[in-house]
Each structure stands twice: as structure tokens, then as C-alpha cells.
Amino acid sequence: MSIRTSLKKVLPPISITEQEALDAGDVWIESSIYQGKPDMQALRDIPQAKLSADEQTFLDGPVAELLGMIDDFELGNEKHIPQEIIDFLGKNRFFSMIIPKKFGGLEFSPYANSTIVATIAAKSGAIAVTVMVPNSLGPGELLMHYGTTAQQDYWLPRLSDGRDIPCFALTSPEAGSDAGAIPDAAIVTKGEYNGEEVLGLRVSWDKRYITLAPIATVLGLAFKVFDPDQLLGDKFEHGITCALLPKSHPGVELGNRHDPMGVRFYNGTTRGQDVFIPMDFVIGGQKNIGRGWQMLVSCLGAGRGISLPAMGVASAQSAFKGTVEYSFVREQFGLPIGRFEGIQEKMADIAGKTFLLESMRVLTTEGLGLGVKPSVVTAIAKYHMTELGRDVLNSAMDVQAGKAIQRGPQNTLAGGYSALPIAITVEGANILTRNLMIFGQGAMRCHPHLKDMVDLIHSNESSADAEFNKVLRKTIGFSVKNAFRSLGKGYLPFLRESESALPEVRQYEKRVNSIAAKLAPLADLSLAVLGGDLKKAELLSARLGDVMSYLYGAMAAIRFYEQRIEDRKLALPYFEYAMQWSLQQADQAIVNFINNFPNTATRGLMRLLTNTYTNSVKGISDDLVRELSLASMQDNSVKDQLTHLVRVIPGDGNDINEQAFKAKHAVAHLLSKVQKALRKEPVVPFISFEHALNKLQEKGVVNAEEAAKLHDYNEKRKLAVRVDEYTFDLELLPASQTLKAVDGGKNAA
């Protein structure tokens, strides 16, 4: 019996849906990470994404106008998004950023799409979701890639100008992440349409969690097709199929809503029972019966790589901006709270991860802008960028504490805190994405021979044994090279290369190369020892996926620091934290993987090949934490770059925080003078900062102009540290009535 035949008996079969998912998408720079030799030159050669003139005009025009229309706090208290906002979105073609200009769309780049969605998300998660769904996986993208000419000519102009609002229905009560298990079914039959008997489908469905369904006018629908009368040929089951149904079509039910965490975007259900649709409703026509799952997984890039990561980045930038500004202005025991080390630990983590998130956002959208659809990279982006956004928000909530938990117009965290779990849940729940998709797809797509080997194992061709043996020899040679590379770079530091011209980057680039060299033999040994069982060993495969993911993040940070930072001296603490954190996580994943590998002998070999004999992983120093936390409270270009998605609207919470932050920086030298004077000769009783300042002015310590600036800052400070309050029946009080209540007006600046 041949090796191939033996493996065929052992390995579990691959379902059609699994095979189509594995085949979907392109391979990009993640392949070099998996193979143990990150291609840093290819990374640096990627063209920089920039906003075109049209994209910048749209951002400064319609997007800015939209932000001015949004009151996210009021929206959270209402049942519906104001119709004027829905109309504005349609009129200004927010729903058609991915649709080509020839159909009336905007045809924006992935980078612009991400920037626009993230800018909206920083203001309102509900409006951002409303915009992102038509621009990610849905009828628009499916029509562009797979629709017939007639379908494109009719639907795309209507989707572009907002005459029609789309939704796409995939998930059902019985099938969420396991889309292949959807019970929604269609029977091939003949029926009447427009007064004629035509070949079509009689469809029954029950879907939930469908964004925009309550207001959609056209429904994209996924279902399985069965042909019991063999009207299409000799097959009984044809598989998942996608169709487009107008809401007005008889039998289509749309309208009921869910309530996703109180975030007021439209999400709901759609149902239908024995609804007859003609074959013309199938996206791409009759020839695409059964190709629905292949179509869907091929178009996942926008949702996974653009929209959902954009929400994570927007939440982080908003949290970063609000937290560092608050920590600089808010004082306890006579010091800004940002000077206390407990707060500094959180602030450094917020700042470093925000740098990492923006780096990953830029690199991922640059890759998508090249026209590639890297399924592994977009899965990495979706999982890690939404999770990092959640980490940053949680830390910001800890720092802002009481201010963060009081709902109101001045709270800049509450909206993101409610909305981000939505991004973590959709387009494949994050647990599934991490535990099954990243390394599962990564191994099959990034290994140079594995996919061919698996295909040959399951092949029934007579020449399969000979072809398999050739591929097996190549695979063994590949694994041997990986083992020697890992040994060399693990034990001989001088073999760890770096191509960067910047000395501060070189040390980290060498670590990236060293860790990637360890990943390759670990993956090879896992596949050799566990084989098909690795699919079930989710804890193990997830850790290998983590190594790939954190190395991708580190490469993104290197590219961002080298190519997009103007003042690297100011940005160095951010960069170092992002790199050290990413590489620490990758190292820890390797340690945990080896410690938990079930085969003792293989575990020992893994330790030898990777020079991993200890459980200790180098962490981030307290000195870097202190340095970065203090750097983050400075008003400079780096802070501006890492908060550029947060558009400040006059009078909103961000505006109030920013005014106090900038005012304190403007009078920092005067505050120092005041503090020295008070230490030398205290004002007793102190009563309030205003009282003490008046006494110092009387003594000539500060002049009238200086006192006016300090009084102005103090009023802005008091407004920034206040929280919204209400009458007993929850009527919001204006700031002018509540300002005097803030700390009794006695908190020193």
C-alpha cells in the first residue's frame, strides 16, 4: 500500500464548503512569514496608499457634513436613525464607495474606504455600520464580480444613488459561523412570473442578524438548491446559491428588528415561505447555481480587511485621544493623573496599541489596493484589530473611570464601548476566526506544497501516487531547510539579518526574522505528527496563527514607522512599544505551543530546533512605559497622526477635552510659576484655584494677562473633567448649570 493511500484512509475528508474556503483568496506577504523568511523588501516596495483628490474632497465635504448632522447620544435614545441622515447617505453616494464610476459609484480605494468608515465610526458606530455594509460583503460586490450585464446595468446605478438599499442574508437561527449548514432551501421548479411560465426556484428561508434588513429594498439571499425533478441535469443537490430579490416581490418578509446592544443601526430578520423566483434573480444567472459559497468567500476581503478593522482602529484612536487629554488635565493630589505609574501602564498600552492598529490598517488596505484578496491577512486584520480595539477601550474605561461610565453627550467612550462587540461578532465570530481560520487557511495557502499534497491524497487519478511522491520529496526538502534555518538563527545571532537603514529598526527586524524562522519548523512538525487531527487541536493551531499574526503586525509597524512618520524621534517610544508588545506575544505563543504539544519526543525536538528551553519571555520595561505615557500627553504631530480619524465637532466631547488639553499646554509655564509661588507662600484658606490666582495677582506674582489665560484654562479644565448630569426625570442639564458643581469648583489646576 502506498504512502498516499495510507494517508487517504487516515485524513478526514474535506467538504465542498471547506475546499472552497481554502481555495478562496490570494496569498500575499503572509506566505513569507509562514515559510520562515519574512520578505521585508517586498514589504517596503508596496506602493504607499494615499487619498486621491476626489477622496480627500469627499472626506472634507460630505463626510464632514455628515458628522455635523450626527448626535450619537440622541441617536442612542431614539428608535430610528433620522430619515434625513439616511437620505443624505443615499444622495451623497455613501453606499457606493466600491461601485465603479461607470455605474454611478464613487470607486474609492480600499484605503479611502477604510479611512471614511473609520472616521464615521469614531463619531457613531450606528452610522458607520449603516455605511459599511453596502460597501463590504453584499449585493453590490457580488454583482460587480458575478452579476450578468443586465443585472449590473439595472441594480448597480440604483444602489449607487440610494434608490435601493441592500442587505445580504446568510446567517440563520440554525447556522451562524457554519454557513455551510444553512437549512434555507430552494427547489428547482417551474412557475409563473410576469404572466409567463418560467424555470425558477421555490425558496423558503428564515434568516436573522441581517444588517439593514428592516429598511432594505433589495435582499441578497443565500440558500441551498435541490433539483428533485432533475430539471437542470442529473444532480439532486447543487449547493449554496445567491440570489437578489426586490422587497416588493410576493412573499418576501422584511421589517422586524433586533436590538444590538442599543446601537441604533438597523439589524433584523427576513423570512419567506415557498417564494417563487425566476432564474434571472440568481446572481450571475442559472450558470451560478451552486457557486454561492465560492462567490461569498471570494468577496470577504472588504468586510474582514476594511470595514470591521476600521471600527477597531476608530475606537482605539478615539479612546487614545480622550484618555491622554483627560489624563493631562485631570489632577489628583496636585499632579496630572497621567503622572501616576498605575495610570501610565494603561496609557502606554493604549498609545502603543493605537500605533500598531493604525500601522495594520494602512498595510492591510495597501495590500487590498494592489488588487489582491489575501484571505489570511484579512482574517488576521479582522480578529486582531477588533480585539486590540477592545483592549484599548477597556484600558481607557479604567483610566477615565467615573467619567467613562456616565452616559451623555460629553462621554467619548460609551458609543465605541457598545458598538465594538458587534465587530467582534460578525463576518465570522472572533473565536472561530482565531482558532480555525488564520492558521488553517495559512497552512494550506502559504505552505508551498501542502495544498498540492492534500489534493493528491484525495485524488482518484491513476498518476496520483507518482505525483504525490514528487511533492512529498519537495515537502521534506522544504522542512529540512526550515529546520536548519531555525537552528542557525536560534543559536547564532549574527545570522539574523536586517535590511533597514535605521538602527532602531534593525534590532526588531532581526527578531522578526528569528521568530519567523522558529514558526516554520513548528508548523511542519505539527502537520507531520498530528496530520488531520491538527484541525481539531484548536488551542494549538490558534497559537501558530497568533505567531503569524503578531509578526504581520510587527512588519506593519516597521513599514509605518519607516515610511509614514515624519518625526521619528517623537514616535520612537510608540514604535518600540508596538514592536516589543507584538514580538513578546509571538514569543509567548511559541512557548505555550511547545509546552502543550501532546507528543513528548516532538516537544523535545521543537525545543532544540527553536532554542526554546524556558517559559520566560522578555517583557516591556517600566522605563519604556513611563517614557511612552509621558510622550503620549504631548501635543505634537505623532498624537495628531494617531488620532486623525477623530474629527472634532465644535461643542462635542472631543472638542471640550481638546480645548482643555491645548489650553493647559499653552499655560504650562505659568502653572509652574503659580505652583512654585504657592509652595513658597500658600494661600490660606485656599477655597478655589480662582481665589488663589486672584491673591497671586494681587501680590504681583502673575500679571493681568497671565491671570486671564490661567482663568480661561481653568474654566476649560472644569468643563473637561465634569460629567453629564440630569434632573430626576432624566432631563439633561446644560453645562452652564452644572459647571459649578464640578469638584465644588475647588480642584487646583
TrEMBL record:
Cofactor: FAD
EC number assigned by the record: 1.3.8.7, 1.3.8.8
Keywords: FAD, Flavoprotein, Oxidoreductase
Pfam families: ACDH_C (PF09317), Acyl-CoA_dh_1 (PF00441), Acyl-CoA_dh_M (PF02770), Acyl-CoA_dh_N (PF02771)
Domain Acyl-CoA dehydrogenase C-terminal bacterial-type: 444-726
Domain Acyl-CoA dehydrogenase/oxidase C-terminal positions: 290-433
Listed pathway(s): Lipid metabolism; fatty acid beta-oxidation
Top EC group: oxidoreductase
GO cellular component: cytoplasm
One BP annotation, GO: fatty acid beta-oxidation using acyl-CoA dehydrogenase
Matching SUPFAM superfamilies: Acyl-CoA dehydrogenase C-terminal domain-like, Acyl-CoA dehydrogenase NM domain-like
GO molecular function per UniProt: flavin adenine dinucleotide binding; long-chain fatty acyl-CoA dehydrogenase activity; medium-chain fatty acyl-CoA dehydrogenase activity
Listed PANTHER family: ACYL-COENZYME A DEHYDROGENASE (PTHR48083:SF33), MEDIUM-CHAIN SPECIFIC ACYL-COA DEHYDROGENASE, MITOCHONDRIAL-RELATED (PTHR48083)
Family designation: Belongs to the acyl-CoA dehydrogenase family.
The name this protein goes by in its record: Acyl-coenzyme A dehydrogenase
Top-level taxonomy: Bacteria, Pseudomonadati, Pseudomonadota, Gammaproteobacteria, Alteromonadales
